[in-house]
Amino acid sequence: MMKPDCLVAGGGIIGLMTARELRKEGLSVTLVERRQVGQEASWASSGILSPMYPWRHPPAVTVLTRWAELRYEQVAGLLQEESGIDPEWRLSGMLILDREEKEPALQWAAQHGVAMQWLQGDELHEIEPHVNRREFETALWMPRAAQIRPPRLLRALQVSARRIGVKVLEDTPVLSLISRNGKITGVETPSGPLEAECVVIATGAWSRTFLDESQVNVDIRPVRGQIVLFQGAPGWLTRMLMHRDQYLVPRADGHILAGSTVEHVGFDKQTTAAAAETLRQASRRMVPALDRYPIEKQWAGLRPGRENNIPVIGRHPTLEGLYINAGHFRCGVVMAPASARLLADLILGRTPIVDPRPYAL
Fold first, then answer.
1. Which member of 63, 203, 291, 337 has the lowest number of beta carbons within 10 Å of its beta carbon?
2. Beta-carbon contacts of residue 164 (< 8 Å; ≥ 6 apart)
3. Are 62 and 311 in contact (CB under 8 A)?
């Protein structure tokens, strides 16, 4: 196989977006995935195109998410044109039912130019009639909060990447990095070495293995998140809802996602009855009428968590040609377009879209 300009390790949304961005700029790109593309944390995500309670996050997270949020509709449209698959970007808006978040939220929104209103009484229930009237009489309303459907987004990305010339190798785990004289030269796989001029580590919760190998300590760790899916009716619930770190996301076909847990259990992806019951109770507190709808599915994903929630995006500090795009925790889907663009800027020597220093090792 001819040596590519860049090899991207990891076939989740970060790896796919990065590979597509580099290929569109004329680089030859090979993407390797240890199992099947788009089947780990990216697939398991809710698809909310905003951080949960964005005012709680450090400025470095806000900078990337705001850049991506303002462009996601266009990204989704381009992917649909390129792949024939609709990623289901929808401007559904979000209601945040935590009364105590009012002041910090409104201050943050004014500072960053984000549309946000404080609703009371009938104002709230006109926007979403199914909200629990006994529990909630006020809410923060984010009318520009959008969502996307991750499984469809990942399929669209994979088709688009292949069509523009990204070589995708599934069932190809990276066993180790290969370097010579302080420069990365490729990766070792069960089928033998794959050479490349540069290597991007975008393996999510598994990224720390390769960074430890390169003698850089990065606090990326797996954090399990469980979600349940209600079989609702199309158009019955129309707004995303959030309360006490739990959320409801209504899909166009009537399904309603309820999530999610935050569990530090290592690389264990099992689902639990206790989590399902916790999510059921939180959901029915927000929308009591969910009692009439059954839980259809339950699943779990392993997010790449970091202590400060700021992803690592940039060059390896000592190994030339090695780059990292990992550690996005719960914001991988919303940050993906900005993260891919920023890393491509650094690889290609372009002026970066944002100051890269907060994301550097």
1. 291
2. 20, 23, 24, 82
3. no
Partners of 249 in the β-ladder: 257
Tell whether the torsion through CA atoms of 141, 46, 307 and 264 is positive or negative: positive
By DSSP bridging, strand 322-326 and strand 198-201 are parallel
CB 228 within 8 A of CB 308: no
The Cβ of residue 355 has, within 10 Å, a number of other Cβ atoms equal to: 11
Q: Tell which residue, 279, 276, 299, 300, has the closest CA to residue 205.
A: 300
- Tokens 């796989």 correspond to what residue? 189
Q: What is the DSSP letter of 263?
A: B
- Measured CA to CA in angstroms, residue 60 lies from 41, 69, 288, 311, 358 at distances of 22, 14, 37, 9, 6
Structure confidence at residue 1 as a pLDDT band (50, 70, 90): low
**φ and ψ at 90, to 5 degrees?**
-140, 135
Q: Report the candidate in 180, 50, 187 with the shortest Cα–Cα distance to residue 114.
A: 50
d(CA 157, CA 330): 20
Please list the alpha-helical segments (H only) found in the chain: 13-24, 41-44, 59-69, 72-83, 102-112, 122-127, 150-163, 207-213, 273-286, 332-348
For residues 160 and 210, the model is more confident at 160
* Residues 336, 219: Cα–Cα separation, whole Å: 20
Segment 239-286, tens digit of pLDDT: 999 999 999 999 999 999 999 999 999 999 999 999 999 999 999 999
pTM: 0.96
Three-class SS of 21-88: HHHHCCCCEEEECCCCCCCCHHHHCCCECCCCCHHHCCHHHHHHHHHHHCCHHHHHHHHHHHHCCCCC
Q: How many Cα atoms within 13 Å fall on the side-chain side of residue 91?
A: 10
From residue 331, how far is each of 13, 66, 137, 304, 334 by CA, in Å? 11, 12, 29, 10, 5
Q: Are 291 and 186 in contact (CB under 8 A)?
A: no
Compute, in degrees rounded to 10, the torsion defined by CA atoms 337, 343, 349, 355: 80
Alpha-carbon span 352 to 343, nearest angstrom:
8
